[in-house]
Specification:
5-stranded mixed sheet, Beta-Lactamase, alpha+beta, 11 strands, 3 domains, 9 helices
Length: about 500
Amino acid sequence: MSLRIKISLIMAALVVLVLVLFDGVIYFSQSRIIYKQERLRHATIAESLAQVAEESLLSGDDFSLISYTFKLKKNSALAAAYVFDGEKYLSHTDRELARIRVAAPQAFDAPDDETISKEITVGGRKYLVRTVFSKKAAMVEIQNARDRIFAEILKASLLVFLAGLAAAYFVALSVASPVLKLSRAAREVGKGNFSVEIKTSSSAGAGDEMEMLKREFNSMVARLRELDEMKSDFVASITHELKSPLSAVDSYADLLCGEFIRAHGKADAAMKPALDEWMMDIAYIRKNTKRLFDFINDLLDTAKMEHGAFEVKKTRVEMPELIAQVVQLFAVNAKKASVELKVEQSPVPPAALMADGERIKQVLSNLIANALKYTRSGGKITVSAKAMGGLRPEVLYEPAGTAGADSNYVLVCVEDTGAGIPAPDLGRIFGKFEQLKTAGRLVRGAKGVGLGLYIAESIIKAHGGNIWVESTEGEGSRFYFSLSAIIENKA
């Protein structure tokens, strides 16, 4: 789940919680107010009836008292209301009972009803004014009022909730957006791209933590860029300095080898075993000198690629011939390792390429050498080149390839039945100094420094092509690269 969604959900939950608490407080406080208002209204009705009765008795206007009392019936919660003079009902909400003589007034109330009685004295005579309110009817009125308030609260809460969701989304976006930018930039830095920079705002205050984080990140990247440039310059300088003495060692080893060969022809039988042993030592020196030369050349190529000084010299190249030459170079080593190394012939020979033949050989050599390192005895390595017309091969094979215009391409594949590459390592094996740690025990021969695939990728991209890998751990790997072919019209 993304950070933006998490923040949105958290803020939405907080909005809902605040709304529930606020609405609950409002609802219950309004319910108490409604209940008190209803009680006050009952008391007001009883007091008003008493005043009207007193005024009517003073003026002798019984009709107005009867009319007023009867009108009180419109109040739904009022069960009964009357004025009693000790002998008869002077007025009653039931007109049929008005001026009816009774020995004592009826209660007219249920056990839970509210009765308000008041005695008034007019002209020295006492009168009973009584109002009876139905509790059940009163509760219905109170509940209706509560329902109306609840509906209004619900409407208002819904509007507030929608506004809160919109606010939560924009707040989450404002918080998550810079974090996502930092994450993408950190990912690029992790890939070795030290040119990334996060834009900062000069108007942000000193207390803006996000702006402080951006500035610190930019400062870190700038320092890493400086260190990377220092490292590249140092490597380039060291490799240049190593090349001269190493060339001298190789030259003297070659000279000694020649001298030993000449001495071996003139030496007696007792001396020849010693000369043979010395010649083997010289061969060992030359072999390791070549390894150092290859390593230094890889470092120099890497330095050129990093500084943009790497160039390719394109000429017409026939890929089948080039593959045959490289496979021939590894035939002896493959035979010693009991690994079958073969070329798979395509039914339709690929067209010629405009490429740097020596650099493409270097790519193939790196791929086949890696395949030999990780393929057990009895395994197989297959090299193939196919003509691809129409859709670019990246679309057909590469998981993250970029589509392009229709054209003709040559697709080269180096497939092995070796140890395979773990899924977590697939995305980084073309990086500088990257090696498979999990398959270290399966490596045959000397272990490299992790520059071969980086150089191979740089060479292919310098040709405008693409290189990628498909692999399953324990089942082998397939390295592909594609290059534009020369379109030829054949008669």
